[in-house]
Phytocyanin domain-containing protein
Amino acid sequence: MGSDKKYCQVAFPNTRTKEEEKMIKAMNFRNVMVLAIAVATVATMSHTTAATEYVVGDDLGWTVPPGGAAYYVSWAANHSFVLNDVLHFKFIEGEHTVAMVTKENFEICNTTNPIFELQKPSIIGFTASDTYYFTCTIAGHCAEGQKIAVYFAPSSNTPSPSPSGAPPTPATSLPPVKFVENQCQS
Ligand SMILES: [Cu+2]
């Protein structure tokens, strides 16, 4: 998907900037001006439409937290999320996974039948306001505290629920998530 690739570039600006600098040095002044305008335009457009990306666990990333489950409970409590935001689960591929599970399975650390499971570091967005439950499917990691519940509030751009109060019936059983990126860091 084109939008995914664009987001990937936005998520790793340092690499892109170096490439651009090399390109700029190789060009004459007139082309530099054209490029600079183009880059500025893309940057502006990206900025106005980009979601806030939260790295789950900040510097710790997505792992078994040294202090146990309280770490991610605290992290989630100290952040607030709206639907346009995305969660970046950062971990070393093969050492952890990120799996969405039901509330019930989250509480008892049943990882045998996740809603979905990703083996690579991933950026995930959400399309419906709700509380989402994530854990790692590596044996023992959930019980050791690698689990997080995150509430996503409706964004200002999100249409209000129907005034009748009747919850909309999902057309399919697909989870209300969008996989913004799960290939960039492989
Ligand atoms: Cu793990």
About this structure: Residues 1-49 have pLDDT under 50 and may be disordered. The pocket of copper (II) ion is lined by residues 64, 96, 136, 138, 141, 146 (CB under 6 Å).
